[in-house]
Amino acid sequence: MRLAKENLEQFESLLKERGYIKYIQHYNNEDYLYWKSFERTKLGEGGYSVGFAFYDFSKYPQCKDKNPIGVDLKFMLGGGQGIGRLDLSISDDKISVDVFEYFCKKFYEFYKENKL
Predict the structure, then answer these.
(1) Is 100:79 a contact under the CB 8 Å cutoff?
(2) Element (H, E) at 106
(3) Over the stretch 14-65, which tens digit does the pLDDT of each residue have?
(4) In degrees, to the nearest 5, what angle opens at C-alpha 85 toward C-alphas 80 and 90?
(5) Which of 28, 58, 102, 115 is 20 to 30 A (C-alpha) from 88?
(6) What is the C-alpha to C-alpha distance for residues 35 and 49, in angstroms, rounded to an integer?
(7) DSSP-derived 3-state class of residue 31
(8) What predicted TM-score, i.e. pTM, was given to this entire model?
């Protein structure tokens, strides 16, 4: 996903409204990232996390792109499913937050049922 600087605040507001929390952790060399956990137990085990990693390419002088903000969509599954961790990264300009969350939910259900 690519964003213009003008659209950045609106997209981040949408994520915050949906319960995503901003982190600066360099999970995958991003400038910052929004994470939200789904289906975790009270002890914080199981479930999965959905993230949006933001990369601001406008900080590089050679960047002339009109949409200099790159956003990678992240899915992370780990702990409690018999695996250490599973990470999935998607770059897609046409996927919405709703569709990505639905995809992650279905992938999680499939994995839980089939335990690949």
Answers:
(1) no
(2) helix 97-114
(3) 999 999 999 998 888 899 999 998 887 665 567 889 999 999 998 888 878 8
(4) 125
(5) 58
(6) 7
(7) coil
(8) 0.85
